Structures are given as structure tokens and as C-alpha cells.
Here is the input.
Amino acid sequence: MRIIGNEHVQRALEVAIKGNHSILIIGNRRNTIEDKEPLSANVALVSPCPCGNHLDARSDARIECTCILEEVLTHRREFPHCDIKIELVRPRFDDLISAKLFKGISEPVNQLLRIAYDKLRLTVQDIVDVLAVAKTISVLDGSTEIKPQHVAEAIQYKSLRW
Here is the structure.
């Protein structure tokens, strides 16, 4: 698992790994980038509530939680005991740029991704998915680079929320 932004979580993970402590990361898994390597046995990543949309005051995204209080409390009672508990928040778009998530992407494409991330409240994994689909669309169009129209089409396929 690769964490973008969330320096406080990255530091807590370092402490947990170095001291062989158990750590509970509370947040949306889609705001990480999945690696081939599984999480360490002493790291647990859980959603803050059953629907996964618990409001976080530090996040720039406001996706309304549909859970009732009783569901949230029951869900949280099921969290495993861990030495360290920390919250994972949705990173800022600039954190994605700093993480070099957009290698070889033009500024117009970058701006379109920024708008989609902010307005559609996409997750980090959503952006990774949009870029992968946009790359496929660009190949089908015979282009050697991803263009704004490729990203726009890919966003259309991603923006439907159930």
C-alpha cells in the first residue's frame, strides 16, 4: 500500500514497523495506491464507518455519510485493538502531483484531472483508474500521449456513483 500525502500516517507506519507495533489506519482504502505487496501482518486498514464516507474535518471532500449513529458505533467496536490508531484522510490534489502520479501528463490534462478530483470527489484510486482508461483511449485513437479529450471520456465512464 502506498500512501499519498498524509505525512502523519506515513510517520506512524515508520514507528509501527521499526518498533514492531500494531497499527490501525482508519480511512478509505481507495485513497491509497495498491501495491503488489500485501499489508504487513501488524497493519490494519479499516473504513471509518460501514458506508466508508464518514466526514473528515481535515479533508477537502465532503461526501455525506449515510450511516446512522448506531451503525457507526457498532462498526467501530469491531476495530481490532492496536498500539497505534491513526486516520487516513483524502489527500489534496497537489499531494498527488508531488507523488509524481502524473508522469508525462500535459498541463491541460493536469487541470482537467484537478477539476474532476475536486468536483466529483474522486479518490486517489479513481484518478489512477481514469488515467489507465484514458491511456487505453489514447492508444485506440492512435495518439502517443494522453489528451484532455481522452481524460474527459475516461471520467465519463468513472463518474457514475451508485
